[in-house]
Design goal:
44% of the residues lie in helices and 18% in strands. Helix 1 (28-37) crosses helix 3. It starts with 8 loop residues before the first strand and ends with a helix. It is an alpha/beta fold.
Length: 166
């Protein structure tokens, strides 16, 4: 019997994006300056961010930014959960490559989940500039996401088949 081919899921990203903003301590000022420079574009979208970063952006740019928990206190995981639930379309994360982070496993999990759910992600100012100035930034964007549930079911089935012979 031939297995039914699983289809990818179609994801529709609205023209008004939901953007998560995160910056490590040494790059928070850079994130605030970047947000100030791009205030008119960012104003058209929904913004959230981890604790201190969100607070600094809101205070210094007057942009409305929903503040989640601080990164080390679970904020990175909150952002990851929102990505998994389809509630965040884009991640701008100014990460410090020269400083060890005590919550590095959370950061790796966040960037992995952004990759799994195929959302645009910038880890530095130049990439963030390219994303914000993309032709898709203010348009509806439709893309396909691998149906990971189907992949997992298939893997479990294959393992079950192998285990029958053991």
């Amino acid at each position: 019997m031939k297995e039914k081919e699983e289809k990818n899921k179609e994801i529709i990203m609205d023209s008004q994006k939901r953007i998560a903003l995160i910056a490590h301590d040494n790059l928070k000022d850079d994130m605030v300056a970047w947000c100030e420079k791009n205030k008119e574009i960012l104003r058209q979208h929904f913004l959230c961010g981890t604790g201190t970063t969100a607070g600094l952006i809101a205070a210094k740019t007057k942009l409305p930014v929903e503040a989640l928990k601080s990164g080390p206190l679970g904020g990175d995981q909150q952002v990851g959960a929102r990505i998994a639930d389809g509630e965040i379309d884009m991640l701008i994360f100014f990460s410090d490559p020269l400083e060890a982070q005590p919550h590095d496993p959370d950061i790796k999990a966040l960037t992995r989940i952004a990759s799994v759910y195929d959302i645009p992600m910038a880890n530095n100012r130049a990439t963030a500039d390219f994303l914000l100035n993309s032709a898709y930034m203010n348009k509806v964007y439709v893309h396909e996401l691998m149906d990971f549930d189907a992949v997992a079911r298939k893997r479990v089935k294959n393992i079950s088949e192998i285990m029958k012979d053991v």
